[in-house]
């Protein structure tokens, strides 16, 4: 299977200014994702999609392909990631280069391993699903069977639609949330459905002990603490 890995990294981050190339543990944040992606034998091509010259320069030094500079209209805070992916796919199609699937690796999840990427791709291929997403288990207190919505009378109802609540924690079915570490999606799903998630979605569970998704300064501090622990 021919898989294109896309690492999106625009300039102008607000939560953590300059975070994509800000030094974490002595090296630019982008480095963590680039290094493990390059070591994966399953990825046919690895590209950086960026509008920022400084990010692009570091990406080149790391050995990531940079076939184009991301257009300004795709580098805003509210730009959907799917639009960035489709732009990359359409650029390659214009060069008569085609991929079976895309693996999205966001810079904000620095602690994924090569083994994790490889296992995710293997699960994706063997599942024959439209997509695969990395997840973390939802704590039991936030399990959808224990959460509520407001009904038309202004009272609470169980979010899952059941009449009786599950009383014992041990009886709750496992629930998961997307953690943003990895998405793998078939190209036809991306282009036709404009979605990272197809009709069928496999999953891989991330290691909660080494997980962080850097969006705020508090997240950055957590990442620094994790690095100290790892050392």
Molecular shape: globular
Uncertain segments: none
Q: Helix fraction?
A: 25-40%
The helix count comes to: 6
**Largest sheet report:** 6 strands, mixed
Q: What is the number of E strands?
A: 10
Q: Round the mean pLDDT to the nearest integer and report it.
A: 95
**Class per helix and strand makeup:** alpha/beta
Strand content: 15-25%
What is the alpha-carbon Rg in Å? Answer: 19 Å
Strand order of the largest sheet: 4-1-5-9-6-10
Rounded to the nearest angstrom, the distance between the terminal CA atoms is 36 Å
Helix-strand sequence: EEEHEHHEHEEEEHEH
3D structure, described in words:
- This protein has 231 residues and is of the alpha/beta class.
- It contains six helices and ten strands.
- The chain has helices spanning 29-39, 53-62, 81-94, 114-127, 187-193, 217-230; strands spanning 3-8, 23-24, 27-28, 45-49, 101-104, 131-137, 148-150, 156-158, 176-186, 201-205.
- Helix 1 packs parallel to helix 2.
- The radius of gyration is 19 Å and the shape is globular.
Question: What would you say about this model in short?
Answer:
The protein is an alpha/beta fold and 231 residues long.
Topology:
Elements: E1 3-8, E2 23-24, E3 27-28, H1 29-39, E4 45-49, H2 53-62, H3 81-94, E5 101-104, H4 114-127, E6 131-137, E7 148-150, E8 156-158, E9 176-186, H5 187-193, E10 201-205, H6 217-230
Parallel strand pairs: 1-4, 1-5, 6-10
Antiparallel strand pairs: 2-3, 5-9, 6-9, 7-8
Keywords:
alpha/beta; two-stranded antiparallel ribbon; globular
